[in-house]
Design a protein that fits this description.
It is built from 11 helices and 14 strands. The chain is α/β, with parallel strands linked by helices and 310 residues long.
């Protein structure tokens, strides 16, 4: 038995702000309970051990809060580091890795064998939730060869694919079983080649196929900068039409990210958000607090009020 001195519990009201923080989350919990959230964890956001651990906590928190998180992970910098160790060079065209068959072996090994395994391990430190798979498994993602377009001309970039079909059954079965799917962006081609898929593109396609409420992209910038690299003013919210208008002006890694966000909101996903993965717990802050952070893309018919509660 433990006995507190008279009045101590009543005076001990330092806990009130904590209670208010929890209460602030209530409308968002009501709104998102039972909804699927596809989270893209970018390779540039996973450089730090404490960030990876905080990410795993956030994702498991979402699961316990009654949402259905699905993780699609990147690993671009990790692939480049491994290629370098092997004496192979990395080259990109329009933000896409030029992927020879030799490079593809390394992409598959790093994404499915290292990055995915590590994330599954971190998530499963909190319970038996995470199940790793690649887009190849159960024909979840089918790809066709993708060409980069440079000066209006198609350029062969090797085994880079575009997703043409998603069979979401295996992912849905995992969600229904209370698991957290952790998916590497590799897909089988109808021609039985294995293709390297940009992880932003894969996450967006999966969000659409799952009818997700939200696509969240965690990266290494605060959001979409209005006039990058000249300024770093973050665009906090923009409509699909506004995004389509600025898409041709974007460069490097932002191109597949924002193309994915646009595709998602134009295909039924409620909102698409780009967040700073370098900020600990940015995922929870974005979903469960009133302060929106990063960039939110909303469908054209949504009003600005989506930033708060509609
Ligand atoms: N308008 C922009 N706003 C923000 N970042 C931009 C913009 N245009 C290009 N970038 C670049 O895109 C990068 C993010 O893409 P990328 O490196 O592929 O990240 P990730 O590994 O998270 O997918 C940023 O670090 C920045 O250098
Ligand atoms: C075709 C293509 O470029 N694929 C990417 C796949 C990994 C990825 O997208 O990782 P990030 O999200 O960390 O950039 C690559 O090989 O780097």
């Amino acid at each position: 038995m433990q006995i507190a001195p008279k009045g101590e519990q009543a005076r001990n009201n330092t806990a009130l702000p904590k209670a208010m923080t929890l209460i602030e989350a209530l409308p968002w919990l009501e709104r998102f309970h039972g909804k699927t959230v596809v989270i893209k964890f970018g390779g540039n956001a996973m450089v730090d051990e404490s960030l990876k651990a905080a990410f795993a906590q956030d994702v498991v928190f979402l699961r316990y809060a009654g949402l259905h998180p699905v993780v699609v992970h990147g690993g671009g910098p990790q692939i480049s580091a491994q290629l370098e160790k092997l004496g192979l060079k990395s080259s990109f065209t329009n933000g896409l890795r030029v992927t020879t068959p030799e490079t593809m072996d390394v992409v598959r090994m790093v994404l499915a064998g290292q990055v995915q395994r590590e994330l599954v391990g971190l998530l499963n430190g909190h319970g038996p939730f995470a199940v790793g798979m690649t887009g190849e498994d159960a024909h979840t993602m089918t790809a066709v060869k993708r060409y980069a377009v440079v000066d209006g001309e198609p350029v062969d970039i090797g085994l880079v694919g575009d997703i043409v079909n998603i069979e979401a059954g295996a992912v849905k079965a995992l969600i229904a079983d209370g698991r957290i799917p952790v998916i590497s962006s590799i897909a089988r081609g109808a021609d039985s080649h294995v293709y390297n898929i940009n992880a932003d593109t894969a996450a967006a396609a999966l969000a659409v196929a799952l009818g997700a409420e939200m696509l969240v992209v965690l990266t290494d910038v605060e959001g979409l900068y209005a006039d990058w690299p000249v300024s770093d003013d973050v665009i906090s919210q923009l409509s699909a039409t506004e995004l389509a208008a600025i898409l041709p002006t974007l460069s490097s890694g932002m191109v597949p990210k924002m193309e994915g966000c646009l595709h998602a909101v134009r295909s039924g996903v409620g909102t698409a958000r780009v967040l700073d993965g370098r900020v600990q717990h940015s995922l929870l802050l974005e979903i469960f607090t009133d302060e929106g952070i990063g960039t939110m893309v909303v469908p054209d018919d949504e009003t600005a009020v989506l930033g708060g509660l509609a």
